[in-house]
């Protein structure tokens, strides 16, 4: 049986558990971009995100036989990716700040490029999202960018559904305040 775009993710995982490399290629091509973007938003560095994506899909290859199907495969992938990204952040925070890292710290003063970006509403939104706490940013990311349900988000993050709802409420409230302070009103294109 060939693995193609019509093969379900659950079928692909079952075939990967049996050592089917083609099924792994199909699953990777189907999900790697979304998982990469999710990880990139958490870690903020392309090279780190690329390394973590390799680790995520290596784990999928090794652990496919343990997938129980209690959630969608995409939810399982994001949960693995989240764990790896948070672990990488913890490892990085344990490292000492060297001269190269110190020189990479942004100067908060506005230069002409920043002034132009402030007028770009998309850039304003991205900046406001970055101002949210990591917990709130993560919830917004999973719900709006990955279109995950409250139940799926609770499973990925490992918190109760009511906590997801509470964080979502406060994240949206804070985001609205940040956008208003930046001069962007609701209903903008």
UniProtKB/TrEMBL annotation:
<dbReference type="InterPro" id="IPR007627">
    <property type="entry name" value="RNA_pol_sigma70_r2"/>
</dbReference>
<feature type="domain" description="RNA polymerase sigma-70 region 2">
    <location>
        <begin position="27"/>
        <end position="93"/>
    </location>
</feature>
<dbReference type="InterPro" id="IPR013249">
    <property type="entry name" value="RNA_pol_sigma70_r4_t2"/>
</dbReference>
<keyword id="KW-0731">Sigma factor</keyword>
<dbReference type="InterPro" id="IPR013325">
    <property type="entry name" value="RNA_pol_sigma_r2"/>
</dbReference>
<feature type="domain" description="RNA polymerase sigma factor 70 region 4 type 2">
    <location>
        <begin position="125"/>
        <end position="175"/>
    </location>
</feature>
<comment type="similarity">
    <text>Belongs to the sigma-70 factor family. ECF subfamily.</text>
</comment>
<dbReference type="Pfam" id="PF04542">
    <property type="entry name" value="Sigma70_r2"/>
</dbReference>
<dbReference type="InterPro" id="IPR039425">
    <property type="entry name" value="RNA_pol_sigma-70-like"/>
</dbReference>
<protein>
    <submittedName>
        <fullName>Sigma-70 family RNA polymerase sigma factor</fullName>
    </submittedName>
</protein>
<dbReference type="InterPro" id="IPR013324">
    <property type="entry name" value="RNA_pol_sigma_r3/r4-like"/>
</dbReference>
<keyword id="KW-0805">Transcription regulation</keyword>
<dbReference type="Pfam" id="PF08281">
    <property type="entry name" value="Sigma70_r4_2"/>
</dbReference>
<dbReference type="InterPro" id="IPR036388">
    <property type="entry name" value="WH-like_DNA-bd_sf"/>
</dbReference>
<dbReference type="InterPro" id="IPR014284">
    <property type="entry name" value="RNA_pol_sigma-70_dom"/>
</dbReference>
<keyword id="KW-0804">Transcription</keyword>
